[in-house]
């Protein structure tokens, strides 16, 4: 066992509801970890506000700030290394993580996807598009998947997965709401599982 408290960065672009669920889970269960950084491509979003209210460091990094994508990736890596970050959690981060960052943090980056991977994953499959595709395909169940991030969209090792029913009268919006409730329970459990594997 190690006494080192795992330092986590959360990458967000939106409201930060999964971020909030993970933060509360770590605090309430007294896990040997802390969310040390919130990184966003947007200066103003709910996740950044939540981080500031809870004394978590925030940083806004966007490709637009740099002359090249390589410079952007280098700045992101430097930021994570300067903050001594051990793990990264993608929680509604609407950008592809640069390959150089994935390489710098192998098996250390988690993402949550609002479907049962390997189904309904890949480029363009995010947000409401996923739920529309699930309903159009006539699926009777959907759910959420927490997986490690590698160089390919939604192809990394699956850590945890949970199913929810698709109802006959579902719209993409009603299915999205049901899956999001599932995400708020699943992602914290997956983080706990990852920490347990790393710290044992």
Notes on the structure:
The protein has one domain (6-199): Rossmann fold. The N and C termini lie close together (5 Å). The chain is built from 6 helices and 7 strands; from the N terminus they run βαβαβαβαβαββα. The chain is of the alpha/beta class and 200 residues long. 34% of the residues are buried. It is globular. Strands 3-2-1-4-5-6-7 form a 7-stranded mixed sheet, with helices on one face. Helix content is 38%, strand content 22%. The longest helix is centred in the C-terminal third of the chain and has 28 residues, at 172-199.
Task: Describe this structure in a few short sentences.
The chain has 200 residues and is an alpha/beta fold.
CATH-assigned fold name: Rossmann fold
Instruction: Return the CATH architecture.
Output: 3-Layer(aba) Sandwich
Strand order of the largest sheet: 3-2-1-4-5-6-7
Question: What count of helical segments does DSSP give?
Answer: 6
Distance between the termini: 5 Å
Average pLDDT works out at: 95
* CATH homologous superfamily (4th level) name: Formyl transferase, N-terminal domain
Low-confidence runs: none
Element-by-element helix/strand order: EHEHEHEHEHEEH
CATH class reads Alpha Beta
Radius of gyration: 17 Å
Instruction: Please estimate the helix content.
Output: 25-40%
In total, how many beta strands? 7
Q: How is the main sheet built?
A: 7 strands, mixed
* Percent of residues in beta strands: 15-25%
Q: What is the count of structural domains?
A: 1
Structural class: alpha/beta
* Shape field: globular
